[in-house]
Amino acid sequence: MTLEEAAARYGKDPFATKALGAVIEEVGDGYAKCSVELRDIHRNSAGNVMGGVPAVLADFCFAVASDADANRIVTLNSSITYLGMAKDGRLIAEGRRIKDGRSTCCYTVDITDGVGTQVVVANITGFRMR
């Protein structure tokens, strides 16, 4: 799938692309890079980035990376670890395939902030719909 094809397909995801502001930057075989420019709407009452922002970005990046070959893969399980607070700027997610089985697949998504500090690691297991 090309970057343009991925943008057309996932541009139909209003929560990730419109509400969150997620953008697909790169797509490849078992790989995707997506980002979000941080705005005031992404912050909680303490002024920090709301935990749901990287969680949704990780799930979106997984979807793009795992579904690039038009398989209908859905999240079966996900685990997210917050390693630190994101600084101003943007969040950049890189999803990589670890294993691609007959009915399940495993991916890791690393998220860094605008200054390059890793702030989240997510491990996601997907289920291939038939």
Walkthrough of the structure:
The protein has about 130 residues and is of the alpha+beta class. The protein has one domain: Thiol Ester Dehydrase, Chain A (Roll), CATH 3.10.129. It has three helices and six strands, in the order H-H-E-E-H-E-E-E-E. The chain has a six-stranded antiparallel sheet with strand order 1-2-4-5-6-3. A hairpin with a 3-residue loop joins strand 4 (about 90-100) and strand 5. The radius of gyration is 14 Å and the shape is globular.
Just give the CATH class. Alpha Beta
Enumerate the strands of the largest sheet in spatial order, edge to edge or round the barrel.
1-2-4-5-6-3
Q: Overall mean pLDDT score?
A: 91
Structural class: alpha+beta
Oligomeric state of the chains in view: single chain
Compute the separation of the termini in Å: 20 Å
Instruction: Indicate the CATH architecture.
Output: Roll
Low-confidence stretches: none
Classify the helix fraction into a percent range.
10-25%
Q: Calculate Rg over CA atoms.
A: 14 Å
Strand content: 35-45%
Shape: globular
- The helix tally amounts to 3
| H/E element sequence | HHEEHEEEE
Structural topology:
Elements (H helix, E strand, L loop, with lengths): L2 H8 L3 H7 L2 E6 L2 E7 L14 H15 L6 E10 L7 E11 L3 E9 L5 E11 L2
Antiparallel strand pairs: 1-2, 2-4, 3-6, 4-5, 5-6
Protein traits:
Thiol Ester Dehydrase, Chain A, 6-stranded antiparallel sheet, 23% helix, 42% strand, globular, alpha+beta, 130 residues, single chain, 3 helices
Summarize the structure.
By secondary structure, the chain is of the alpha+beta class. The chain contains three helices and six strands, in the order ααββαββββ.
